[in-house]
Amino acid sequence: MDGRSSTTSQMYCRPRVIAPAYCRCNLGRWLSRPVMACTSIMGSTIGVHSVIPVMGSRRTSLRRHSSRSLGHSSRRGAVSLWRTQGRPAGSFIRRAGSRGGRWALARYSLQGQYPGNPEIWHSLPGSTDGLRERDEDIRSRPLFANHVGASTLIHVHTNAGDPLARGTRVFIQEGRIADAQLGASILCYMREQIQSLPAYTAFPVQTAPQYDNYGENRLATMPSVIVEVGFHTNPTDAAALQNATFRSAAMRGVEKGYRLNSEGRTGCTPFAISSIPSSPGKYYQDFPVKYYFTGYPRFPVTLKTTNVSCPSGWTCSNKSTSYARVVPSPLTSNFYCTAQSTTPAATFKWRTTLVDADGVATKPVDHTTTCSPR
Fold first, then answer.
1. What pLDDT, in 10s, does the model give residues 20-34?
2. Which one in 124, 246, 263, 304 has a CA-CA gap of 20 to 30 Å to 343?
3. Is the distance from CB of 200 to CB of 249 less than 8 angstroms?
């Protein structure tokens, strides 16, 4: 028996803002750093230069969906807070009188880019608090998003806490329905993407966002979420955060969750095979097998079928079919049986998995085909 196969979006948006993180390290000091870059992590280091390129490629994907462009103006897609005046992206600014580069990016980056808008980057002018710069940095992110008229604000952080605390979490402001929907969607597809990796099938990802009163979300006039990718204070999570494959999967999940939510596809529908009905066919005739699936896979999708049970006297072949273009459920693949007309009918058992372009594989599903004389 051999197999034959057959197969039977663009949008314009207001800008999105993707904000760098505040990392709270194990000494309890607040460090303003680029996404997922925080030193002194349980005796190891997540370096700026090793993290930024991978995260940047995934942020670019998110921006490309926003309006095909990353821009510095409110007319050109998602806007990043990364670049510091006269310094490379990912650099730090040292506060006068401080030890080390403790105060950086958003506040001073925005001061350099928007010197005429101190209400964005110097929003606490009368404060004498020793943490004023930190607080202004936090506030500058949503205030900047408000200033450019962004439609969505996503903060990507690493988390800190008890060394036993683990996993991906999302924080939202209570009472904001749109934020809750966005947060739930991001968690759903981060779980899908991360747990599709063989090394991270058990990596904990929250099932629902948490409420908290963080300024990054509270001051934003648009849907705003804080994505805590993992705990840099936990050895297992810290190792994951240093793994490029893990980081890439995490950011694919953020992008997919944002994209589907922005398209109105709320709820959580991971990629899965829902059913493969038993399929009968006649000798020397193509007959279709239909593979019904749920979720939103990224094409091309590859269908992989292996034989589980082949009757005596028959030869059964495994098959792999790729579907390059986006097609709705079900996928269809044709089977074909060759036998003498006097050969009695036979039933074959198969096991099929679908794998999308992100590497997300469905759980295998068993199904049967039956061939009989014409």
1. 554 333 223 333 333
2. 304
3. yes
